[in-house]
Amino acid sequence: MATTRATLITGASAGIGAAFARHLAAEGYDVLLVARRTERLDELATRIHDEHGVRAEVVTADLTDPAAPAAIVARATDLGLPIDVLINNAGLSGGAKFSDTPWDSVAGELQLMVTAVTELIHRVAPGMKQRGWGRIINLSSLAALSPPGEGLLYTGIKAYVLNMSQSVDMELKPHGIHVTALCPGFTHSEFHDVMGTREAADRLPSFMWQQPEAVVREGWAAVTHGKPVCIPGTLNKVTAAAIRPVPQRIQYHLGRTLNPFK
């Protein structure tokens, strides 16, 4: 594979994003790392370049800013990095009920995980079509297939990512572009520390957790083989299969019973 192909990874400073950066650099891809923490990105970029000899560039950006997606793609153009792989990984989850959360925070959550994800695809897809090759992974979640959570937008947002990814895959696959919705379950990362849910997460048994590297390996294999949906891990696959036949009204009541704010 030619090393001129480049990957844009959002949320690249830790967890699944950093694991994708290391994995793709090991396969010879140049990487453009995007996150809010410049120091963490610089450290990762230096380590990737030293270990794999690929080009590793950094863009510090906050994707809750509506101007960020256009600025990131413009920076990639300025750096001479045509984006052939897009990893839409950046995300968060609100820590309070919808009606109790300031609108600016709600809008930022939607901008980050709905609008920015969709806009980045829209901005890089024309170049991929022109070159006849592309790979896009959008981080959805096992939550997209799970009962909704009372007062939380997260399951609805991830369900949008799941469905949107499949729709865009249908359109772009004839052009040599594969789009995959990656739907991990509980994954060891800083996500729960940032969201303030570490104590609850630590009460879960170890068999329910995956390492980011395992999620990345399955996700990359899925998009490589043109699979539009990837649920990594045997337990997550079994869970998803068990949820699907459950009627919506029962899922609704399950969501209320499992309300994290009670």
UniProtKB/TrEMBL annotation:
EC number of this enzyme: 1.3.1.-
GO molecular function, one term: oxidoreductase activity
CDD domains hit by this protein: SDR_c
The keyword Oxidoreductase appears for this protein: yes
Domain called Ketoreductase: residue spans: 5-163
UniProt keyword list: Oxidoreductase
InterPro entries in alphabetical order: KR_dom, NAD(P)-bd_dom_sf, SDR_fam
Keyword Translocase found: no
Pfam families documented for this protein: adh_short
Family, as annotated: Belongs to the short-chain dehydrogenases/reductases (SDR) family.
Name assigned to this protein: Ketoacyl reductase
